[in-house]
Design a protein that fits this description.
Blueprint lengths: L2 H9 L1 E4 L7 E4 L1 H5 L1 H15 L6 E5 L2 H13 L3 E6 L7 E7 L4 E7 L8 E9 L3 H12 L3 E10 L5 H7 L4 E6 L4
Parallel strand pairs: 3-4, 3-7, 7-8, 8-9
Antiparallel strand pairs: 1-2, 4-6, 5-6
Helix pairs in contact: 3-4
The structure holds 1-O-pyrophosphono-5-O-phosphono-alpha-D-ribofuranose (PRP) and adenine.
The site of adenine has 6 residues, from strand 2.
Length: 180
Protein backbone atom coordinates (compact mmCIF):
# COMPACT_ATOMS: atom_id res chain seq x y z
CA UNK A 1 0.00 0.00 0.00
CA UNK A 2 1.44 3.38 -1.02
CA UNK A 3 1.86 6.27 1.44
CA UNK A 4 -1.12 8.18 0.08
CA UNK A 5 -3.36 5.08 0.14
CA UNK A 6 -2.33 4.52 3.73
CA UNK A 7 -3.03 8.18 4.57
CA UNK A 8 -6.54 7.82 3.11
CA UNK A 9 -7.16 4.53 4.95
CA UNK A 10 -6.02 6.05 8.25
CA UNK A 11 -8.42 8.95 7.78
CA UNK A 12 -11.49 6.68 7.47
CA UNK A 13 -13.38 6.70 10.79
CA UNK A 14 -14.80 3.42 12.05
CA UNK A 15 -17.98 3.51 14.10
CA UNK A 16 -18.71 0.19 15.75
CA UNK A 17 -22.25 -1.21 15.94
CA UNK A 18 -23.78 1.45 13.66
CA UNK A 19 -26.39 1.51 12.22
CA UNK A 20 -26.87 -2.05 13.52
CA UNK A 21 -25.22 -4.28 16.11
CA UNK A 22 -22.20 -6.03 14.59
CA UNK A 23 -21.66 -3.52 11.75
CA UNK A 24 -18.38 -1.62 11.55
CA UNK A 25 -19.46 1.55 9.76
CA UNK A 26 -16.64 2.99 7.64
CA UNK A 27 -17.27 6.72 7.66
CA UNK A 28 -15.69 8.79 4.87
CA UNK A 29 -16.74 12.17 6.29
CA UNK A 30 -13.29 12.86 7.83
CA UNK A 31 -11.78 12.57 4.33
CA UNK A 32 -14.03 15.40 3.19
CA UNK A 33 -13.32 17.57 6.22
CA UNK A 34 -9.58 17.58 5.46
CA UNK A 35 -9.10 19.64 2.29
CA UNK A 36 -5.62 18.19 1.69
CA UNK A 37 -6.85 14.58 1.87
CA UNK A 38 -9.97 15.31 -0.18
CA UNK A 39 -7.80 16.79 -2.93
CA UNK A 40 -5.46 13.77 -2.86
CA UNK A 41 -8.43 11.44 -3.00
CA UNK A 42 -10.03 13.09 -6.03
CA UNK A 43 -6.63 13.50 -7.72
CA UNK A 44 -5.96 9.78 -7.35
CA UNK A 45 -9.18 8.93 -9.22
CA UNK A 46 -8.43 11.63 -11.83
CA UNK A 47 -4.92 10.24 -12.31
CA UNK A 48 -6.29 6.72 -12.81
CA UNK A 49 -8.78 7.72 -15.53
CA UNK A 50 -7.32 10.76 -17.28
CA UNK A 51 -5.52 8.70 -19.93
CA UNK A 52 -8.48 6.36 -20.47
CA UNK A 53 -11.35 6.90 -22.87
CA UNK A 54 -14.06 7.85 -20.38
CA UNK A 55 -17.33 9.20 -21.80
CA UNK A 56 -19.19 9.65 -18.50
CA UNK A 57 -18.95 9.21 -14.75
CA UNK A 58 -21.98 7.51 -13.17
CA UNK A 59 -22.20 8.46 -9.49
CA UNK A 60 -24.33 6.48 -7.04
CA UNK A 61 -26.83 8.15 -4.70
CA UNK A 62 -25.79 9.51 -2.23
CA UNK A 63 -22.17 9.25 -1.19
CA UNK A 64 -21.04 8.47 -4.73
CA UNK A 65 -22.21 11.94 -5.78
CA UNK A 66 -19.55 13.55 -3.57
CA UNK A 67 -16.78 11.77 -5.48
CA UNK A 68 -18.28 11.43 -8.93
CA UNK A 69 -18.99 15.13 -9.39
CA UNK A 70 -15.40 16.39 -8.99
CA UNK A 71 -14.09 13.43 -11.02
CA UNK A 72 -16.42 14.19 -13.94
CA UNK A 73 -15.55 17.90 -13.69
CA UNK A 74 -11.81 17.22 -13.81
CA UNK A 75 -12.10 14.68 -16.64
CA UNK A 76 -14.33 17.07 -18.56
CA UNK A 77 -17.06 14.46 -19.10
CA UNK A 78 -20.76 14.27 -18.21
CA UNK A 79 -21.86 13.41 -14.69
CA UNK A 80 -24.66 10.85 -14.57
CA UNK A 81 -26.38 10.54 -11.19
CA UNK A 82 -27.75 7.07 -10.45
CA UNK A 83 -30.65 7.86 -8.12
CA UNK A 84 -32.73 5.99 -5.63
CA UNK A 85 -36.23 5.17 -6.86
CA UNK A 86 -38.71 7.97 -7.37
CA UNK A 87 -36.29 10.90 -7.60
CA UNK A 88 -35.76 11.24 -11.36
CA UNK A 89 -38.47 13.20 -13.20
CA UNK A 90 -37.99 11.98 -16.79
CA UNK A 91 -38.34 8.49 -18.31
CA UNK A 92 -36.18 5.98 -16.44
CA UNK A 93 -34.74 2.49 -16.46
CA UNK A 94 -34.71 0.87 -13.04
CA UNK A 95 -33.06 -2.04 -11.30
CA UNK A 96 -33.92 -3.57 -7.96
CA UNK A 97 -31.30 -5.09 -5.68
CA UNK A 98 -31.10 -6.84 -2.33
CA UNK A 99 -30.24 -5.10 0.89
CA UNK A 100 -29.42 -6.88 4.12
CA UNK A 101 -33.15 -6.66 4.91
CA UNK A 102 -35.54 -6.24 1.98
CA UNK A 103 -35.02 -4.65 -1.42
CA UNK A 104 -34.15 -1.29 -2.92
CA UNK A 105 -34.32 0.14 -6.43
CA UNK A 106 -32.13 2.59 -8.34
CA UNK A 107 -32.82 4.45 -11.56
CA UNK A 108 -31.21 6.22 -14.49
CA UNK A 109 -32.75 8.56 -17.03
CA UNK A 110 -33.07 6.79 -20.38
CA UNK A 111 -31.20 9.64 -22.11
CA UNK A 112 -28.37 9.71 -19.52
CA UNK A 113 -25.96 7.69 -21.67
CA UNK A 114 -25.46 6.87 -25.33
CA UNK A 115 -24.99 3.33 -26.64
CA UNK A 116 -21.29 2.46 -26.52
CA UNK A 117 -20.35 5.10 -23.91
CA UNK A 118 -17.47 4.06 -21.65
CA UNK A 119 -18.53 4.70 -18.07
CA UNK A 120 -16.72 4.82 -14.73
CA UNK A 121 -19.14 3.97 -11.89
CA UNK A 122 -18.30 5.74 -8.64
CA UNK A 123 -19.34 5.08 -5.06
CA UNK A 124 -17.69 5.47 -1.68
CA UNK A 125 -17.76 1.81 -0.64
CA UNK A 126 -18.37 -1.73 -1.87
CA UNK A 127 -19.89 -4.05 0.73
CA UNK A 128 -22.14 -6.83 -0.68
CA UNK A 129 -21.76 -5.23 -4.12
CA UNK A 130 -25.54 -5.16 -4.63
CA UNK A 131 -25.66 -1.42 -5.27
CA UNK A 132 -22.73 -1.41 -7.70
CA UNK A 133 -24.05 -4.45 -9.57
CA UNK A 134 -27.47 -2.83 -9.93
CA UNK A 135 -25.84 0.37 -11.24
CA UNK A 136 -23.84 -1.68 -13.77
CA UNK A 137 -27.04 -3.41 -14.90
CA UNK A 138 -28.65 -0.01 -15.53
CA UNK A 139 -25.67 1.09 -17.60
CA UNK A 140 -25.91 -2.11 -19.63
CA UNK A 141 -29.64 -1.54 -20.13
CA UNK A 142 -28.70 1.67 -21.98
CA UNK A 143 -26.18 -0.33 -24.06
CA UNK A 144 -23.27 1.54 -22.51
CA UNK A 145 -20.07 -0.10 -21.29
CA UNK A 146 -18.75 -0.18 -17.70
CA UNK A 147 -15.05 0.65 -17.98
CA UNK A 148 -14.50 0.17 -14.25
CA UNK A 149 -16.28 0.46 -10.91
CA UNK A 150 -14.42 2.66 -8.46
CA UNK A 151 -14.72 3.18 -4.72
CA UNK A 152 -12.61 4.48 -1.87
CA UNK A 153 -13.23 1.39 0.26
CA UNK A 154 -13.75 -2.30 -0.41
CA UNK A 155 -14.93 -4.69 2.31
CA UNK A 156 -13.71 -7.95 0.73
CA UNK A 157 -15.17 -10.17 3.48
CA UNK A 158 -18.65 -9.14 2.29
CA UNK A 159 -17.76 -10.59 -1.14
CA UNK A 160 -19.07 -7.67 -3.18
CA UNK A 161 -15.85 -7.18 -5.12
CA UNK A 162 -15.75 -10.95 -5.79
CA UNK A 163 -19.34 -10.82 -7.12
CA UNK A 164 -18.46 -7.87 -9.33
CA UNK A 165 -15.33 -9.58 -10.65
CA UNK A 166 -17.29 -12.79 -11.30
CA UNK A 167 -19.79 -10.71 -13.27
CA UNK A 168 -16.90 -9.49 -15.42
CA UNK A 169 -16.42 -5.96 -14.08
CA UNK A 170 -13.07 -4.28 -13.40
CA UNK A 171 -12.75 -2.82 -9.90
CA UNK A 172 -10.58 -0.14 -8.39
CA UNK A 173 -10.56 0.58 -4.67
CA UNK A 174 -8.06 2.67 -2.76
CA UNK A 175 -8.17 0.70 0.49
CA UNK A 176 -9.67 -2.42 2.00
CA UNK A 177 -10.91 -3.22 5.49
CA UNK A 178 -11.34 -6.66 7.03
CA UNK A 179 -14.63 -7.62 8.64
CA UNK A 180 -18.23 -6.52 8.20
O1 LIG B 1 -22.24 -2.99 -1.55
P1 LIG B 1 -23.56 -2.75 -0.89
O2 LIG B 1 -23.90 -3.82 0.10
O3 LIG B 1 -24.66 -2.51 -1.87
O4 LIG B 1 -23.41 -1.46 0.02
C1 LIG B 1 -22.73 -0.30 -0.41
C2 LIG B 1 -23.67 0.86 -0.53
O5 LIG B 1 -24.24 1.16 0.77
C3 LIG B 1 -24.01 2.53 1.07
O6 LIG B 1 -25.06 3.32 0.62
P2 LIG B 1 -26.50 3.36 1.30
O7 LIG B 1 -27.40 2.42 0.56
O8 LIG B 1 -26.35 3.17 2.77
O9 LIG B 1 -27.01 4.82 0.93
P3 LIG B 1 -26.46 6.31 1.22
O10 LIG B 1 -25.31 6.55 0.27
O11 LIG B 1 -27.65 7.13 0.86
O12 LIG B 1 -26.04 6.41 2.67
C4 LIG B 1 -22.76 2.88 0.31
O13 LIG B 1 -22.63 4.27 0.10
C5 LIG B 1 -22.94 2.12 -0.98
O14 LIG B 1 -23.71 2.82 -1.92
N1 LIG C 1 -19.77 -1.08 6.75
C1 LIG C 1 -20.22 -0.05 6.03
N2 LIG C 1 -19.73 1.19 6.24
C2 LIG C 1 -20.20 2.24 5.52
N3 LIG C 1 -21.12 2.14 4.57
C3 LIG C 1 -21.63 0.92 4.30
N4 LIG C 1 -22.54 0.50 3.39
C4 LIG C 1 -22.70 -0.82 3.55
N5 LIG C 1 -21.90 -1.29 4.52
C5 LIG C 1 -21.22 -0.22 5.02
Amino acid sequence: MSAYENEIKQAVRTIENWPDEGVMFRDIMPLLQDAHIFRKLIDSFVHRYQKETVDAVAAIDARGFILGAPLAYELGVPLVPVRKKGKLPYETVSQSYKLEYGEAEIELHTDALKAGDNVVVMDDLIATGGTMLAACELIKKLDANVLEVAAIIDLPDLKGSERLRDAGFNIYSICQFDGL
